[in-house]
Amino acid sequence: MHIPDGFLDPLTALITYMFSIIYAAYAFYRVRRSKKSEEIILASVLAAGIFAAQMLNWPLPGGTSLHFVGGALAGILLGPWLGFISVFLVLLVQCLVFHDGGITALGANVFNMAIIDVLAGYIFYRLSPEKYKLLGAFLGGWLGITIAGIACGIELGFSGQFPYSLQSTVLVMGTWHALLGLIEGAITSAVVSYIVKKAPHLLIR
Amino acid sequence: MKFLISKRAFFLIIVLVLVSPVFGVILADMVGYHEPLDLAAEALGLEDKNEEINWTPFIDYTVPGLPDPIGYVLAGFMGVVMVLALGMGMAKILSREK
């Protein structure tokens, strides 16, 4: 999911940077307005957990692998603004310190994982009826990754770095992530289920 | 709130980092690990330029001079500390009175 340098053309990189900067500015404004330092510290601890969890690449037959992304989980637990900050911290350290994800693609990576995935988790969970919250968490995790994968395909398709159509990139990225997203959905749902049982007050409204 | 900001949370993070090379290095090498995006990019003919325009000695969670599994663990702890430090700094700045 982390787009490296060389995959996006300057225009696509610029547009995704702009979207992400505007969203980030609003997210920071909302968090600053609430002035709840304890919640920001909670977001940092969750970010550290997501960073560690993302280091566990589970190899799959066929030479690919998956790792937990955690955007939807952050959205469910922390909401769209703090959830954004949590995943943004992870992506920033991954990019600047470990070059996991390109600096030219940081805007796109933030857009896909810290905005789309977080929002999907938040929206699907919030919209699901009380009886079906765990299904909502599963859908958030699964569809968050799928939609983020499709967004990634659109960015690659638009960037014009290679002679393939938008349809091909969206199909390839969407299909892969729709399959792998099932596991993200299952993990998200399991973690939310655990937290709801052990510490329901952690779900920030 | 205290549940997550607790010894249990940090214990879980430490365990995740300690076992990470099993999945991120050893098994990944065994199966010829590629992210789905790498596979898609290969099929589409894209070229990864991360190594060409690199600025960090810790690229791909390695530490110069150390074997990959040990470097991976060290990189994991470095990353966790940096994420927490950035978050704590942000908490201080964002929660400050205007």
Key attributes of the depicted protein:
heterodimer, A: 205 residues, 3% strand, globular, B: mainly alpha
Describe this structure in words.
The complex is a heterodimer of chains A (205) and B (98). With 205 residues, chain A is mainly alpha-helical. In chain A, 75% of the residues lie in helices and 3% in strands. In chain A, β1 and β2 form a beta hairpin. In chain A, α2 packs across α3, α3 runs antiparallel to α4 and α5 packs antiparallel against α6. The radius of gyration of chain A is 16 Å and the shape is globular. Chain B has 98 residues and is an all-alpha fold. Chain B has one domain. Chain B has 3 helices and no strands. In chain B, α1 crosses α3. Chain B is extended, with a radius of gyration of 18 Å. At the A-B interface, α1, α2, β1, β2 and α3 of A face α1, α2 and α3 of B.
Helix and strand topology:
The complex is a heterodimer of chains A (205) and B (98).
Chain A: H1 10-34, H2 37-54, E1 58-60, E2 64-66, H3 71-98, H4 106-127, H5 133-159, H6 166-198
Antiparallel strand pairs in A: 1-2
Chain B: H1 7-31, H2 36-44, H3 68-94
Helix pairs in contact in B: 1-3
